[in-house]
Amino acid sequence: MALAHAQGDDAPTVTIGVVADNEPYTFFEGRTPRGFSVDVLRLVEQHSDVTFEFRAGSWPDIYSAFMKGELDAIDGISWRPDRAKNILFTKPYHYREIYLMRDTDNPLPPVNELEDLKGLRVGVVENIFYGGEFQDAGFNANTYDSLPSLVRALAFGWIDVAVGPRLTLEYLADQNGFQFLQLHGPAPLSQYSREDFRVGVLATNPELLNRIQAGLDAIPESRIQNLLQRWQEFGGAQASQAEQLPLTADQKQYLTNLGPVRVGFMDDYAPFSFTDGGRVMGLSVDVMNRLSDLTGIQVIPVRGQWPELISMLQGGEIDAIANISYQPERESLARFTSPYHVIPNVVFTTNPELKFRELADLQAVNVGLGSGIYYEGTVRMALPDSQVQAYASQEAIFQALANGDVDAVISALPAGNYWIRELGISGARIAGELKLPGIPGEDLRFGVRPSLAPLASILDQAMGAISPKERRVIENRWLGASNGSPAERTAQVRWNRQEQQWLQEHNRQIRVCVDPNWLPLEGIRNGEHVGLSSDVLTLFSERGDLRFNLVPGKSWMDAIDNVRKGHCDLVPLAMKTPARESFLDFTSPYLEVPTVLVGRIDTPFIDRVSDLGDQPVGIVEGYAFGELLRKRNPTLNLVTVSSEQEGLRQVQNRELAAYISTLATASYYMQSLGLADLKVIGRVPSDWSLSIATGNDDPVLGDIMQKLVASLTTQERQQLESNWRNLRITEQVDYTLLWQILAGAVVITLLLVYWNRKLGRLNRQLGEANAALSRLSVTDNLTDLGNRTYFDREFPKSFQWCQRHEAGFAVAMVDADLFKNINDTWGHETGDQCLKTLAEIMREHFRRETDRIARFGGEEFIIFTSYEKVSDIMGRLESFRRAVTERPCDTRQEQGVDLTVSIGLSWGIPMPDSSPSEFLRLADQALYRAKHNGRNRLEATPVADPAIHGTDNHRSR
């Protein structure tokens, strides 16, 4: 045993195993252990007679050493029945939730059970406590020795979904600049969905357990919550705004005499520095601007390519250079600051077979890299010189990859992602990470010419004064998945030589097959292609100078068969399935449409498809959802029909209990056919992810269509969704039954009166069904407030209305204080009741015509509205805040459950060049201040000069 006693002292030194790379819980800076759990254990030392000696390693390593008796204790271990046979556990000092994380470019279906992950590459940490759940479900999950390795695997595309603790996944993605990674929701692990943090000792040492437990019991719960908040929000440091930089008299005099400083920025190194509209911008530029604020120096930006800037620094034409990495041989060139960002370098390739672990793996391929980059010499030493091509700009490097001039490119991850999107390089992937001895990644620093060495020291001092919150704001602004500039631009579509040749050989004409009866998404009317997919191809035709020619067909199966037989080049709206992948290639999805169940108006609403039992449920023959549903619900009685219209008619005639359709097409045909006796009776928990499908025997065409899909901007994708959601159809009455009645009727007038009354009633029911249909897509199920779809639709509309009418626009972010404590103490049922109560109070206080309320996610809500006087909106928010404190949120408990809220408000009159995102950003910052300043308060920030709005009251309590 490693347990030892200090000489002359009864307090034992306890060796405790912690995971080395488990930020923000446990990690090491040099030899110093840091993290939330380390801080808790330090408090245990203060309140008990033990001293911890930390031993770090991967989880499998420390667990093995602990079980062999080489460690006295282990931290962060969860209780399990099989472990309890040999281990004694303290009470939990923390719970962390287990979540799923995905790449935003790789949409996943909703995951409600482990079965929904079948067919995906799932990653978990080796020997983690919930790993057995995946084994029991028949998964062959990919295992990694640490959470950082797991997150990197997801970022590099080696797995489809990562399973791990929510806080750690978010922290690692943020710290590594992987802003394209996104949480997908809680992991469906039932009793293992929360991980309990405990300290464990071997069963043979109950005395040590009692000492550690006594230390934990002595720590106030509020102290642990304070530690957790500091690590969640501020990386372990106390949050503070950067204060005026404390400079010595000599430093101040030096800056006074210095004059303007010329700083060189690469103009093609997005998102760190690049030129847009003649102005240099990016993360590096924002950091330098903040250093300028702190030091008072005047910065003159100088743009150029990397070789030019290095030459200018050597010649004294510029004083400093951004985006430079430290190398010993560069010490004669510049004096370096500490890094302001570290990013991984990776190998990008279009070769699906290439795997990279070391430079020797690139022996048989041509490699492109940046001229003068710090690792160029290392790469040239390892590879034949003729295979290494150096380029002066990042764009040139990736254009060479697109043209096939090189097989692989070594570049910084964010910069590479940017140029792959910008150039629309189809099939590009990450083959592996470039790891050089002693260099964790590309360290971005400022380099100052040696004659200005004191300036380097001052800049380094200023860098340390930038608060963690400020750093995070700057990083979040630029390290998003689609950064190119603050205002998104349409990506230019550029064809490589193969693609240009294909287009020339086909006279730039592409044959298209569609579903003739799937409106409003697509259809054929009077021999013409119509619907949303027609709009998409029209856009692509203009963007790529192409002509899409319709090949008519009688059904969806005709369209699929024509592509299979080579009579057609593509279908514009198709969903990927395993069966179709045998003969089709798919672009990334560009449209998501909810799936619904349609039944008769007298059918009760259902929660899940399985509630229909063995009743017949219709779906169009050949539709992708039929294949997926048969796999997930083998007992479902699926009946194929030839078209949407036939399926709906069979439901109307009671031949089917329900019909599976999309929200778009169900709404369209229920209106256009006058099917007022049908309604939406349920939601199928998977959406249609629609792509363009091409024959897999023509990969070049697949690459062309992928580039066009990749060129769609966020605004264009939102407009496509808006097109089908906002479609209005003149209602048509189905007169078939009426004419049958007239043909056999004698008392025609009486029957007409009867029918008109019935028709009026059915039309009212149709209106109710349509209203329910609309609410279904934009309403949060728990609170009945608007959801994120509602927010995305209404927020820009409300902003634009205020902008046009020069009216005040107010945005309030509302967050329930310490809501996790309510869930942990009272349970999730009480937590849900509190959210419902909070929503009810919101509706009571914000019911004006221009008021809009949405649930932003979790316990966070957003209110946006117009106003005449800012004092009015502040008063309403204060009244709402007080009402929350005065009303217990779950009266089923004996004394009720108390709840408070923090509110961040931004307000102002939108100017022509204003953006709604600025109001949202300032409201979020104000919310952060409200929570940092004690919670249960309102903090407000004006978007423009407060004098414009007639008040200077920006803060209230």
TrEMBL record:
The GO terms this record gives for MF are: catalytic activity
This protein's UniProt keywords: Membrane, Signal, Transmembrane, Transmembrane helix
Q: Region Disordered: start and end of each range?
A: 938-957
Q: Which domain of life is it from?
A: Bacteria
Give me the segments passing through the membrane. 737-755
Q: Which Pfam families match?
A: GGDEF (PF00990), SBP_bac_3 (PF00497)
Q: What is this protein called?
A: Diguanylate cyclase (GGDEF)-like protein
